[in-house]
Amino acid sequence: MNEATIELTVNEAARREADAPHSLVARIAPPLTLESGRELSPLRIAYQTYGVLNADRSNAVLVCHALTGDQHVASVHPVTGKPGWWSTMIGPGRPIDTDRFFVICSNVLGGCMGTTGPASNNPATGEPYALDLPLVTIRDMVAAQAMLIDHLGIPDLFAVVGGSMGGMQVLEWAASYGDRVFAALPIATAAKHSAQNIAFHEVGRQAVTADPDWRGGRYLLEGAIPRKGLAVARMAAHITYLSEPALQTKFGRNLQDREARTFGFDADFQIESYLRHQGASFVERFDANSYLYVTRAMDYFDLAADHGGVLAKAFQGTKTRFCVVSFTSDWLFPTEDSRQIVHALNAAAANVSFVEIATDKGHDAFLLDVPELMATTRGFIDAAARVRGLATP
Amino acid sequence: MNEATIELTVNEAARREADAPHSLVARIAPPLTLESGRELSPLRIAYQTYGVLNADRSNAVLVCHALTGDQHVASVHPVTGKPGWWSTMIGPGRPIDTDRFFVICSNVLGGCMGTTGPASNNPATGEPYALDLPLVTIRDMVAAQAMLIDHLGIPDLFAVVGGSMGGMQVLEWAASYGDRVFAALPIATAAKHSAQNIAFHEVGRQAVTADPDWRGGRYLLEGAIPRKGLAVARMAAHITYLSEPALQTKFGRNLQDREARTFGFDADFQIESYLRHQGASFVERFDANSYLYVTRAMDYFDLAADHGGVLAKAFQGTKTRFCVVSFTSDWLFPTEDSRQIVHALNAAAANVSFVEIATDKGHDAFLLDVPELMATTRGFIDAAARVRGLATP
């Protein structure tokens, strides 16, 4: 671990909680009744906006972030200093054009970038919640976003867009608040989390909780960070975001800065040092307990189960326009998962288009500058804007 | 961890080392020069045999075990009490018929079931080697097996058979000692380890070494066991042994002994408790440092690289008969890996057949009672025995 590693101590957590100086923060007083039946109050939602809300408040696009994403969708990340995670997709002249649309992205409930999460202050104790934060679900995340949209005085959203866990939120928005969503773009996602995906998440959680520095979840109170466990969790997850052919092309069996194998346990292969780097850099920007909460939310997601076991019922009578996108080499959320969404939307007589994009970039493709994704998004958004009567730029 | 967990203390390691009472042990005095250039001596090889060696010593079949396998291929495992790991394949009347063949299976070099490995006594210090054991490779494992075969006075092998890492050893046998191998049956394997597979192994090694109870590898000396780290490593690996459809069929999103989700971090889903069980039971029978050594041996395997980058050269002039087997749902060693072996064997003008077996059981299929695998093996072995002039039963 290098010296520059950010020490997320109790003080740091408190600072984040108090200020989230990098983001706008909505403080919402009325309690949110969670899917578990428990109430959460007060609620903080940290968010970013891009572009300008038009006079009739009809050009708002909500972007939902993935597992380890955050609200810094198109602006520099305050911790890593890197460009926003979807700055290829969102910005002036981009497929989601901030010269036309008012883009909102909020940190999810349970997250660690300013929204109420396990590192937040528990008003009952004056200490970080840790595992005393009630479990949150995708539906709870979306309910919190709806509260934010209310708070901002926006009656309905022109579009809700997101990939992976973000796509789950898009589906949940369409199911729970369909009359407030004109267009929905779920990318590389599923209406339920598969057994294999739950399995990988469970490995990650076990890696975190096996780290003695996790301290039963109370590491912030005890001045520790379960770095090694969280890094292992990230490494395992990271493999699932890439495709085997892409790993083969990018790394193959190439050795790392060496003429030959060392016959030891150093990172001989480039893929090893790449993964170690992914693990080490992740712990600088992400909270271990948030990782537990947010993975759990994904595992619990099963939209059909919430509607009597029939996915089509989730979308019954919907007027939302959908575009469902998958990637050929995505083995975490394979095309079959998207096809099930499309079947259900068809059964609900929804307006839906479906694009499977050929790429070797695996699940991560949704985050990358994949031309066909950009073109698909631009085409869907532009057409929906015309139907909605939004002025062309 | 339950109370019955076997405490693999220094004493226990010493007992295993001294006795391996469950197995035959060959003590080999001449040093083995390893691929790294280092020498290893003395060498202990723990092994099991089944059936009877015939008068002209022509009916010996060497079975090579996989990463976490051992010599107890067709007899009860001394630690777990479970049947041998390939008792469906090997035994009286089985495809590899112990009424006809003399089957030998030895624990690999670097293993932890009696053969010299990191838990073995280092004669230079009188303590377990730990990380002072030189790194071993697949070629070294095979060289040690060849020493065992010499030790047993067996001039050549009727067949060498194995799946996964066992299949790598089969290929290495054919490449390094082709004139001593009449028939070779590599199953669900590859001539080189892929970037994705190295990545998963690296995650496992990081999980082990992140456990403070690993103690820089000196846990046996310090009376500790890195249980949690090794369990996480096993859990991650175990997912890769199964196919997504099989996980879906077997577990799906079924809940574990509960009417509903608990909104907590217990093992709500059956797949979670299944994985936890896999992790917990693995640490009762496997040594953490062995896991590092043996995964590393697999990562280093690249048979073409050892032959000027041309895989066919590894088999040039071979007289061995090959049957290469893969499974449709194996994503760890996909059919494409087997196809590359077959292409190389064809280019070397070898006698080779290739069977891709349709199954949803993933990589683990090679260990299971898959009828087409049994029939393929029986057919190949019987035909080879006829050609070799071995009496029918």
Automatic annotation (TrEMBL), chains A, B:
The pathway to which it is assigned is: Amino-acid biosynthesis; L-methionine biosynthesis via de novo pathway; O-acetyl-L-homoserine from L-homoserine: step 1/1
One term of GO molecular function: homoserine O-acetyltransferase activity
Q: Tell me one GO biological process term.
A: methionine biosynthetic process
Q: Which keywords fit this entry according to its UniProt record?
A: Acyltransferase, Amino-acid biosynthesis, Cytoplasm, Methionine biosynthesis, Transferase
Q: What is its EC number?
A: 2.3.1.31
Magnesium as a keyword of this entry, yes or no, is: no
Catalytic site: 164 (nucleophile), 330, 363
Q: Where is the AB hydrolase-1 domain?
A: 59-368
| PANTHER family linked | HOMOSERINE O-ACETYLTRANSFERASE
**Which family does the similarity line name?**
Belongs to the AB hydrolase superfamily. MetX family.
| Protein name, per record | Homoserine O-acetyltransferase
Q: Which source organism?
A: Methylopila turkensis
The gene it comes from is metX
